[in-house]
Amino acid sequence: MQAIPHNIYIHVPFCMSKCNYCAFFSQACVAPDWGKYSADICDEIKYWATKIGRFDVPTVFFGGGTPSLMPVECFAQIMNTICTHCNLPAGAEITLESNPATIDKEKLNSMRNAGVNRLSIGVQSFDDARLKFLGRRHSADDARQLIASAQNIGLRVSADFIYGLPQDTVDDVIKTCHQINQIGLAHCSMYELTIEQNTPFGKMNLNMPDNDTMAQMYMAIGDTLKLPRYEVSNYAQGGDECRHNQNVWDGAAYVGIGQGAAGRVYIDDTWYEQRGAYEQFDKISNQTRAIEKVIMGMRTVRGCELTDDVKNVIDIAWINSHPTLVRINGGRVAATPQGMLVLDDIVEKMVR
Ligand code: SF4
Asked: In angstroms, what is the span from residue 18 Cα to ligand 1's centroid?
């Protein structure tokens, strides 16, 4: 049977140091064994290309951790392996996550020449005191320069920001949004600071903004940014959405490569939950997969497509009786702006 397209996520679990809020699967490692790392990743790609069958790759996303720490040769070797063992169409989206402290103009150029066409930059804040508090190893100027360099060489650019720090006010968040508007970003992600246990912040007794203030900040972001929201935390000019994430939220198949990376692969009419190449590989029922599609699709402003499998797991009568929170339109079910604030509750109620 012909393999369906699979997006590829590649995890790079190394960072220069751990940020104070970070609970991602990553470790501070000054000199990782990059040769072994890329050889392992290439082996996993070959493994999945055999197991799934040679498949088309609409997008590749290098996430972390800090993928921009990776030597260019290592990135190129991984891309070569994808080209050799899968079908990488011209125009495939290749995203590299980056920390401004780890990549200069020269390396950025080399990465672009090796195939990167989209750079996602962890800016987090345009205020140096806040960056220090978060445990970031770069300044606001470093981030601004990286954004400008990436824009100048024609990369699609996205930047991540964190709001809702203990000292933040709604006005601070609005100021950040104006700064984002000024530098002409076509995509940004705005994440509310959440305190995770087992992080330095988890051990401090931080005085966080209350829920009402956080909700006001969220609404202010939507009102101030020139970029429309297309997912709970993501904003983009039309056409500049992250195709990789959009595909995953739409329920497309994707392979997670590297330690701890998770995916959903589709082989011979069956969905599998997968973690790395050898860590986990379990069948999931079509019903479970349909529920996952609802959970992820509802995060997007355009919502979840009402395919037959989705219709089987949702309560249409409940949806129709809550038009201020959720609506069906154009073959999709989507949360209203008001519904986005209570998304978890809505999803729980609409799934049967
Ligand atoms: S750079 Fe990113 S992944 Fe690494 S510690 Fe900081 S937040 Fe976590």
From this structure: 6
